[in-house]
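My convention is simple: the sequence line spells out the residues, with the fold written below as integer tokens. I include a record here:
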Amino acid sequence: SMTCGGVWLKSCFTNPLMDLTFFFLSLKLRVCVATCNRADYSKLAPIMFGIKTHPDEFELEVVVLGSHLIDDYGNTFRMIEQDDFDISSKLHTIVRGEDEAAMVESVGLALVKLPDVLQRLRPDILVVHGDRFDALALATAAALMNIRILHLEGGEVSGTIDDSIRHAISKLAHYHACCTRRAEQHLIAMCEDHSRILLAGCPSYDKLLSPNHRDDYMDIIKSWLGDQGQECDYIVALQHPVTTDIQHSIKIYGLMLDALLSFNKKTLILFPNIDAGSKEMVRVMRKKGIEQHPNFRAVKHIPFEQFIQLVSHAGCMIGNSSCGVREAGAFGTPVINLGSRQTGRETGENVLHVRDADTQNKIYHALELQFGKRYPGSKIYGDGNAVPRILKFLRTIDLNESLQKTFCFPTVKDCISQDIDHILETQSALAIDLGGTNLRVAIVSIRGKIVKKYTLPNPKNHKDRMQLILKMCADAMRDSVCLNCRILGVGVSTGGRVNYQEGVVLHSTKLIQEWSSVDLRTPISDELHLPVWVDNDGNCAALAERKFGHGKGLENFVTLITGTGIGGGIIHDNELIHGSTFCAAELGHIMVSLEGPECSCGSRGCIEAYASGMALQKEAKRLHDEDLLLVEGMDMKLTEPITAAHLINAARLGNCKADAVLNKASTALAVGIINILHMVNPTLVILSGILASYYQAPVQHIISERALISTQNIKIVTSELEEPALLGAASIVLDYATRRLY
């Protein structure tokens, strides 16, 4: 370490053995992690464990101050010791009081005590977290003592005095590890050097999204709520003071307690933090008899690992803790956020805001709406790989580089998001296509490039199929890290009728067995901790064309898939049409004849019964059985299965019987499309699937002869997309997830 070079050189003349030992020790990066309370320790602990597992590269020092050392808040420094960390210094820095002045005095006391500690530890870098007044004292002391600062969770917006403190720490810090892309943009907009900003994600998510799920969560629930505690049948409440409006936040706290008393559910309530107003909030709680009420369990502190289990299995979380808008989203736990303390936070769809929580009835109604719901898990604040990114970032810090900060003035919209290697992580989706024959999974980039595809035979039964889907997805997620792709969500394309709102396959096609009333969203979301969307394969083909194909920029068009069966999707006024019972755009079952051939749906005369691959294969087999298929020039092996391709080939070689079958199929398809033109009057019709190129010209010709004059000039084009089902499933994810991020 260059910071220690002078000391080592001086000692060379006195004790050579000690010189050599000190030289090797000085090669390590001395990292001081300072923690002020139970909340920031949950974010810092994963980094501390990561540093501890690399003793050859890092030397860890731990400084504890703030409410960790206060008995009223559970003496939470003990959990640091229980995690087997050696605490280098304990600083009593809290001035007891119930107003804003006490916080100011606490900052001053910390500034008095910190210089001696930092001078003794001589860290190469100090890691501070978040937006607490204690953290501001740490950053101020370190900056004035020329110690490099790494700030976690800078750039975020919450809506209270914490914003000012957080941004002040960011201006003092030399390096930044932020959680979200929006936070990264905010830091760049604040003129921070983008080369010193790491988009890491939240370190606590490394624990939340760990594949090692705890099976003893019921034991944890019962240990904190008693034997009557049941999964998804209790509430976690955590409300802190808002220091910019203390009296109003105390009023909201009382209204929340009244609503919880009326709602009559088991409730685990945590004491508020040490901010001004907390003592008054505790008095309100005791005045209402919460600690003695049989439905309530009031506690000062819960170990983080147990707390996240309690949050993940709760029927609802209520209050204004950042945990509600951040960590709870990973599990899809319904959250009610009260007041203004988290107003500016990015949140998932699991959060219901009650910003003006001025009546008990309003909060009670929010509880009725949210309690017991389940939402898709979101990764707005991280993907479970923050700590490896941060350690990699620490390794690149050049201690020879000047401590003087430089400020940049980029335009936010032109900024480049970089990881530690300065390589853009590609926003991507995981796409799944459930076909009758094959099961396919693909990593699809935001520009529609299929980065990697996995294909395996689709199992015949439900259990094996779900296991294979989850395994293929897990393989793809693992590969996405190596491919530098950040997966935003999962899109599923499947045959049959789909309730896209719930992610449930209602009725499947006959090609996919045991695939009705199947909830696809829940198992995939629970396994991958990602939001999941499910839709019909025809709808997905239309969405693929809208984002990546001929439908780009068009408000009204129709896509028809001409494959084994016939399906499709309708885009009208730039929206996908699903219908009242999710049965819209079943275009293959438009009837073009009252006495036509029997269709797989049980009716007669459907387009699919004439023009699908199955229908053509059936006709090809009939002609072959009657020795009417083969003509001169056809090369066909005796054991080769008869397909629609043989029928098309025979027609091209002059087989009039085959040609008649194909003419009837083309006419049926064209008549069906004419019906579509007359009903929804689209700008364009896109044919997709293996038969599209064959049908395009004859269908266009028949339309020009038989459609209304006003629709005869509507173009029939062939899709240029190789994988419309996969691309369409990916487009749902990419459109929604990127809209939410920005």
